[in-house]
Design goal:
Layout: H1 2-55, H2 62-70, E1 91-94, E2 97-99, H3 102-112, E3 119-123, H4 129-136, E4 140-145, H5 148-160, E5 166-170, E6 183-188, H6 197-201, E7 203-213, E8 218-226, E9 229-238
Helix pairs in contact: 1-2
The structure holds S-adenosyl-L-homocysteine.
């Protein structure tokens, strides 16, 4: 019994050990498979968002559409809203702020006519999603957020996703960001009651600025800065969180 008994015990142990290893492996595989399934689900939702909310409403810029197809919007919203990330509305991102509706992001980006390598200033980093879209299109982005907590979170999200051409700054965007001025394009995603003068000053001749303006009834404005002067046109009614800070004085 002695010899065989020992061997039997050995076999038993081996079986237990292998089952254990197998269990760990299959758990890991399952985890990875779940992740892959989730990513696939979000890709499908993203594609539907682009087709139904963005292309259907007339956005044509191929680079904008491509960026909106690529950037994982679900990673820019708080976890409790992850399943609503691709819906046709803005979502809370904490601190009383919101990530804009996908269509509005696309529309503002299209108005800017972004070209590879352009220097873009964004006021109102929020989640960092708009900055990611601009970076995805090859822009060099400087984005300013007045709330340090949001800036910190956006910085993490952007660096986790490998967006190296985005610099997140904490501060009041009313004054723009002089060290990197002038900018090819400027985008403002919080609404002042009138266009801050420093932003127009920090725009290059030939540059474009998109900005929501107004208190209750806001209008999205497109500003073209030309040799001959400043040209402002209204694009569509919008609803953004108010710009705070110096602009309120
Ligand atoms: N573009 C963001 C959404 C912006 S929400 C995104 O893609 O998620 C507007 C943001 O502007 C808020 O985070 C708010 O804190 C910020 N904000 C408001 N006033 C500001 C100011 N004066 N300077 C910089 N950021 C400001």
């Amino acid at each position: 019994m002695g010899k065989y008994g020992k061997r039997k015990m050995g076999l038993k142990k081996m079986v237990v050990l292998f089952s254990f290893i197998f269990l760990i492996f299959s758990c890991q595989n399952k985890g990875q498979e779940d992740l892959r399934k989730m990513e696939k689900k979000f890709m499908t939702l993203r594609e539907r968002m682009v087709q139904e909310q963005i292309e259907r409403r007339g956005i044509k810029d191929k680079k904008v559409l491509e960026a909106m197809r690529k950037v994982p919007r679900h990673l820019f919203v708080p976890e409790e809203y992850i399943n609503e990330a691709y819906e046709d509305y803005p979502l809370p991102i904490g601190e009383g702020q919101t990530i804009s509706q996908p269509y509005i992001v696309a529309k503002m980006t299209e108005l800017l006519e972004i070209k590879e390598g352009e220097k873009v200033l964004e006021i109102g980093t929020g989640s960092g999603y708009q900055a990611a879209i601009l970076a995805e299109m090859g822009a060099k982005v400087y984005t300013i957020e007045i709330l340090p907590k949001l800036a910190e979170k956006a910085k993490k999200t952007l660096s986790n996703l490998g967006y190296e051409n985005v610099t997140v700054l904490v501060g009041d965007g009313f004054k723009g960001y002089l060290p990197e001025a002038p900018y090819d394009k400027i985008i403002v995603t919080a609404a002042p009651e009138k266009i801050p003068e420093p932003l127009i000053e920090q725009l290059k001749i030939g540059g474009k600025l998109v900005i929501p303006v107004g208190k209750y009834n806001q209008e999205l404005k497109l500003v073209n800065k030309k040799e001959e002067g400043i040209f402002v046109e209204s694009v569509l009614p919008v609803r953004f969180v108010p710009m705070v800070g110096e602009v309120e004085k």
